[in-house]
Amino acid sequence: MRFPGRSRRAARRAQQPPADPPAAPAGPRPALVVDALGRKCPIPIIMLAERIREVPVGEIIAVLADDVAARTDVPAWCRMKSQEFVREEPVERGGWAFHIRRMY
Asked: What does the pLDDT look like over 5-31, one tens digit per residue?
């Protein structure tokens, strides 16, 4: 079936049923949540660096941030500091929750 003005891919998407809503977040609950909502770069990273020692090795710390720079800064910090970036999930109030496992 051909739709005027649409590519084949767009026509296929139009015929597909809507996607299911996202599933509930998977994984362990964080041992500590750091709320950096409303803070600009580099404050979320500074708050994470100061507070990560409060959780035991192997546990999860979550950083809430709504500054778009945090989406690249948090995973990069984890790579530089040999911590495990577990996941990113949206937050209802806006922004994201970044889950990090303390490795040492």
From this structure: 656 655 555 565 555 545 555 678 999
Query: Which residues contact residue 42 at a Cβ distance below 8 angstroms, ignoring those fewer than 6 apart?
Result: 73
Q: Are 94 and 66 in contact (CB under 8 A)?
A: yes
**Number of other CB atoms surrounding residue 78 within 10 Å:** 18
Q: What is the pTM of this model?
A: 0.75
Amino acid identity, position 54: E
90 DSSP 8-state letter: E
Q: Where does 15-103 show beta strands of DSSP type E?
A: 32-35, 60-65, 84-90, 96-101
From 32, 33, 37, 41, active-site residue: 41
Beta strands, E only, 8-95: 32-35, 60-65, 84-90
Contact 73, 98 (CB under 8 A): no
Cα 59 versus chain centre, distance: 17
- Per the annotation, the verdict on 41 as an active-site residue is yes
